[in-house]
Amino acid sequence: MTIQTSSTRLVFLFSFLLVLFSCGDKEKIEPNTSDLIPPSSVAISNISDNAFRVDWTSVSGAEGYEATVARDDSFTDLVQPYVDLRENGTGINVISLDTSTTYYVRIRTIIDGEKSAFSTTVNGTTLGAAGAEPTNALKDEATTFAVGMAVRVNNLSGQYDAIYKREFNSLTAEYEMKMNIMYPSQGNYDFTRADAIVDYAQENGMHVHGHALIWHAATPSWVENFSGTDQEFEDMVEDYIKTTVTRYIGKVRSWDVVNEAIEDGNGQLRNSVFLQRMGTDYIKKCHQWVREADPNVLIFYNDYNMVSSNTKRNAALAVVDQLIPEDLIDGFGFQMHISYNGPSKSQIANAAKDVTDRNLLLHFSELDVRANPDNNMTMLTETRAIEQQQKYKEVVEVYNAIPTDSKFALTVWGLKDNESWLQNFWGHIDWPLMYDDQFNIKKSHTGFLEGLQ
Ligand code: G3I
Hints:
Blueprint: H1 6-29, E1 42-45, E2 52-56, E3 64-70, E4 85-87, E5 91-94, E6 102-111, E7 114-115, E8 122-125, H2 138-141, E9 146-151, H3 158-167, E10 170-173, H4 179-182, H5 192-203, E11 207-215, H6 221-224, H7 230-247, E12 254-259, H8 273-278, H9 282-293, E13 298-303, H10 310-323, E14 331-334, E15 337-339, H11 345-356, E16 361-370, H12 382-401, E17 407-412, H13 421-426, H14 443-451
Parallel strand pairs: 9-10, 9-17, 10-11, 11-12, 12-13, 13-14, 14-16, 15-16, 16-17
Antiparallel strand pairs: 1-2, 2-5, 3-4, 3-6, 6-7, 6-8
Helix pairs in contact: 7-9, 11-12, 12-14
Bound molecules: ligand G3I.
The site of ligand G3I has 9 residues, from loops.
């Protein structure tokens, strides 16, 4: 057995202490492999009138980042949707910005759900090219009525999402809240797509205008070929209306209950399966069922050519006049599928007065303005773009001038020209809307803004 001298013991004690502290220190010496730090460098590039690119350096161990954009360096005037916007990569495109405006950007890192401090703030100023269209958000400028947009479930993301949130505070399903989509076969409801649009609107504080419970052109074939009795048909329609309206109580502000019930030309009731199976008071029955399902939802009648055809408008008003005394209608929708060269501003104003004189809400519900009604153009010329701008301005001026009690919403029927229903309907190219195929703002958007002045 070796005798340990005192020096040996000291060496052992020192070694023991060295190991002890170095173990303790070991945890302090080796840096954490994923330090929770912000990106060391953030840069803005590709600045245009309405957009720019932001890129930043990656951080070891980052599971993602959050980007925030504001109009001030204290980050109080935030730019939706770029508010703590999650991004797993190291860059984003910031779009739908105002021209000639300075924007401030900061990024932070996310590691294991924890967020780092903010990066240094960088800023960039969008261009204000001479003649660039103003990019003021429509919903911010229209202070007395909602500005609506027709949307599709597949387009509730990306640049569509950014523009919807920036410009609009009311949504209409372009086609996914119609009977052929929501009630594809008897006893089998499918609200998947309707729910998606309603949920998106709820998440973004937007109204939903329900369109359209009953429409001859979106009636499922099983309804067209219904084999039961008339009473069974009526019971089925009642169940469909009450099931649908009840589902969206408190989420859908208003419904087009029956759409386009008046024939073109003669002003008669359109000979739809609903007229055939339920009788001439089918519209009243449908409105009654909506009232019973949700006394608070607003009931609209909606139709086209309400300005250009006095016969058709007067026939629709005759139907409406039967409903008013029974409190079975709240508003009237003029679809407003018009052209750059008509109807005139005075025709639009006179037709609108027929509705507002009845103390009903008026909805310009599906506005688009054909720039190429004669199919004699292959591109939107500057001249025609200015004429279209003027027509948008006139429509908005008329709407903005109606009595406050009749103001409800002005809804544009689609975002980008190339996606308009008009391309297929007329079978030739047109540019009817406020954004072009690349999401750029057009002069028609400027016309809308001018109409609000
Ligand atoms: O998005 C799908 C696509 O994924 C699929 O490949 C394609 C082929 O099946 O269909 C696409 O959906 C079509 C949708 O338009 C989008 O293009 C639907 O089938 C088609 O039925 C739908 O047509 C709509 C139409 O009403 C019928 O619901 C139009 O978008 C819409 O603009 C039009 O709107 C009507 C108003 O509701 C009432 N006033 C007139 C107006 C124009 O007709």
